[in-house]
Amino acid sequence: MVSRLNPYLSFNGDARQALEFYKDVFGGTLSLNTYGDFGQAEAPNADKIMHGMLETPGGFTLMGADNPPGMESAPGQPFSVSLSGDDDAELRGYWEKLSAGGSVSVPLEKQMWGDVFGMCTDRFGVPWMVNISGSES
Fold it and tell me: Which helix (H) or strand (E) holds 109?
């Protein structure tokens, strides 16, 4: 899979409604995974969206999720830029450069869904998410 760059939107509980709205606007295929789908079936946020992705016929990709408990979105920053793919070396290289001089909120490491994932804010205040599919690390 080639690496892709796309917006990743954050929501305070209405990600499902928002992503379904964007599907109505742009068309395409929408996949939604809840926190319950990833082993948190008893949690209060089990029905909230942990990850959603809309891929449109026009080639757009839009991702989004509900914020986990305790992680409210900051006004004016309901987005991140997402880098994803399966080229481990390429994506780790981007991570190293983006996180240098910035701050890391989630270290780039293996996650419960099996991929390597991290979140950082670069030195200019832009939030980034990096997901490496199928990585062995």
Answer: strand 103-110
